[in-house]
Amino acid sequence: xxxxxxxxxxxxxxxxxxxxxxxxxxxxxxxxxxxxxxxxxxxxxxxxxxxxxxxxxxxxxxxxxxxxxxxxxxxxxxxxxxxxxxxxxxxxxxxxxxxxxxxxxxxxxxxxxxxxxxxxxxxxxxxxxxxxxxxxxxxxxxxxxxxxxxxxxxxxxxxxxxxxxxxxxxxxxxxxxxxxxxxxxxxxxxxxxxxxxxxxxxxxxxxxxxxxxxxxxxxxxxxxxxxxxxxxxxxxxxxxxxxxxxxxxxxxxxxxxxxxxxxxxxxxxxxxxxxxxxxxxxxxxxxxxxxxxxxxxxxxxxxxxxxxxxxxxxxxxxxxxxxxxxxxxxxxxxxxxxxxxxxxxxxxxxxxxxxxxxxxxxxxxxxxxxxxxxxxxxxxxxxxxxxxxxxxxxxxxxxxxxxxxxxxxxxxxxxxxxxxxxx
Length: 423
Fold this sequence. Notes:
By secondary structure, the chain is α/β, with parallel strands linked by helices. The protein is 48% helix and 17% strand. A hairpin with a 2-residue loop joins strand 7 (243-249) and strand 8.
């Protein structure tokens, strides 16, 4: 088995690449690199069979120079075990810092997780709730509406967000909807939250397509990861005239070069829990999925998917990273040299954190906008951020990731230098 790739090392390399271009000192790089705090917690939970299981949870708070920490909570069990998950959440918290800066929302980066896979283990609703509330209790000392605002991530939903909000509210004797985002509408959630990441990615794709003088109508699309983000990317691109020719989920990948009917594919997945076996499709490997000829490739699964070998063999014009950290640093240079436009994760999937920000604002002011107003605000911000990054990319003759990191790091450095150090 190949050694696991270290997401923290990748995140740090991306930071250092931007620092090289910006001429940032060694001391300031060290400050920007390290998380402010990483909390590791023990979670004893009584399971349905009466036995006590001990779970491990994390919350990494990377940087809050631009505002309170912000970032998702995942329930997942990466192959590298608990030690790998700690470095994973550290990396994800760093990417959240840069993502918030890119989209220009007043947050810093955080990420959390519990080492458990509810999908594999088939946990009951009661077990999920007890794990969730125990984790909320364990991290309650460091989260809060003006301190750290979590959100859903891999294998967590609006249900878990409501339970975290309720646990925090009861611990503090007050109703605190703004302690977390991604809640149901009846608990202070925001309209358009479900489509935010996918639709934001589509806006980036639309602008990227214009920049290379291509058309979305008739374009062939491959989506790795047919979950929440991937599904909405597929739906919106299909409405714009694109053809989705291959998709994958945790069970496997399928292809139909004539294009899928996305509505029927979604219905099939909901019924069968996977896209594998869908009519008029052939099963392919993950490697084949990523290297099949298409116009736009959308990695919407997990990190570390596109290495140097895959980068040398992809056959597309645009890669839009709906997932966090799907491309390794050595692959970026290959893609850039091959003139493949990569829309980096901190830009491509920033729609989710922007709508999270709007949810937080609505909770704090007690006034809620319409879905149309929210989508309009997001579209305007995504377009503005995309072109800010594109301008830096062209001016400095660097790939879009380096340009995005330059924009983000500059904003965080400005905030840090404005405030100074105290005490």
